[in-house]
Write a sequence for this structure.
């Protein structure tokens, strides 16, 4: 009986043509045209998708990193940074000191701009002064909230002495601690400067004008006067209708190939300089604001110009400081 049952099972599994018929779950899948192909497990599909996605992300990261490295290496990172009157500014930028732009790689960039109107060097060089920044880390900074200094500036007499001393102490902190942003702890009222003395204190009001800013107004303070080693600008009460009157500082940008770009455009023939407006392509533009203090080293690293006041007027105080130990 058992042998008959086994024979029936074997007979049921053999087709009429003598071929073995596999169960449906074990049969290869066909494409309808007589061709058969094995199913690709979904597990491997998911793994392949993950691998491809990781490779795509890795390629994007490599391309982005290479582009950033190229930009940093070539110094091709020109930009204009604008500090508006609505910002609360507290920024310090440390930049390489530049003594002399009458030599390359600076001369070919700066001479068409300045022509014969501005000086390009001074002896002794800024870096040779007794109060020059250590490690040749010059600076520029913009700081809001100095209304207490503005109150002193608006007074007469002894208030100016305290004003000069407090600004000098702020500058000395940037000189003696290169790379460290200015810290305002409020304890500078009774501190006397050790390196700097005030040489010029002047209030100036820029009136509205239709004149476009030209390259003639671009200058570096120390190259113009030996008494202008460090510069401070304190903006007075600013009228609500003021338009324009910004202070613009131009960048020299160095690359690893020894070349320099200068952040002004257009730079064409010398004959057109006095007629061409200043167009900044790389640098810092500071909008006036009551109680805002601008500090910078006065060497060639900080060529600057006042922008035209288009409406209203811009009152401000200028201060210049020199080294105590220098004779000039």
């Amino acid at each position: 009986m058992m042998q008959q049952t086994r024979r029936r099972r074997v007979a049921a599994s053999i087709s009429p043509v003598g071929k073995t018929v596999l169960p449906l779950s074990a049969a290869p899948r066909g494409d309808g045209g007589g061709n058969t192909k094995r199913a690709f497990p979904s597990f491997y599909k998911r793994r392949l998708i993950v691998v491809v996605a990781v490779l795509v992300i890795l390629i994007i990261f490599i391309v982005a990193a290479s582009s950033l490295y190229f930009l940093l290496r070539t110094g091709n990172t020109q930009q204009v940074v604008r500090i508006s009157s609505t910002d609360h500014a507290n920024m310090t930028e440390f930049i390489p000191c530049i003594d002399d732009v009458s030599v390359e790689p600076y001369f070919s960039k700066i001479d068409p701009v300045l022509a014969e109107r501005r000086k390009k060097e001074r002896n002794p060089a800024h870096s040779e002064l007794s109060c020059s920044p250590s490690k040749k880390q010059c600076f520029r900074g913009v700081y809001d909230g100095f209304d207490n200094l503005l109150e002193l500036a608006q007074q007469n007499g002894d208030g100016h002495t305290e004003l000069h001393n407090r600004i000098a102490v702020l500058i000395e902190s940037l000189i003696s601690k290169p790379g460290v942003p200015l810290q305002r702890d409020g304890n500078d009222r009774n501190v006397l400067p050790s390196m700097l003395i005030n040489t010029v204190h002047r209030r100036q009001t820029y009136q509205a004008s239709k004149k476009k800013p030209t390259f003639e107004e671009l200058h570096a303070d120390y190259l113009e006067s030996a008494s202008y080693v460090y510069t401070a600008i304190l903006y007075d009460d600013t009228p609500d209708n003021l338009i324009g009157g910004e202070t613009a500082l131009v960048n020299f940008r160095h690359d690893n190939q020894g070349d320099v770009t200068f952040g002004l455009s257009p730079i064409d023939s010398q004959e057109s300089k006095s007629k061409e407006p200043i167009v900044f392509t790389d640098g810092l533009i500071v909008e006036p604001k009551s109680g805002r203090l601008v500090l910078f080293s006065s060497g060639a690293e900080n060529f600057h110009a006042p922008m035209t006041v288009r409406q209203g007027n811009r009152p401000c105080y200028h201060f210049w400081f020199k080294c105590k130990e220098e004779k000039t």
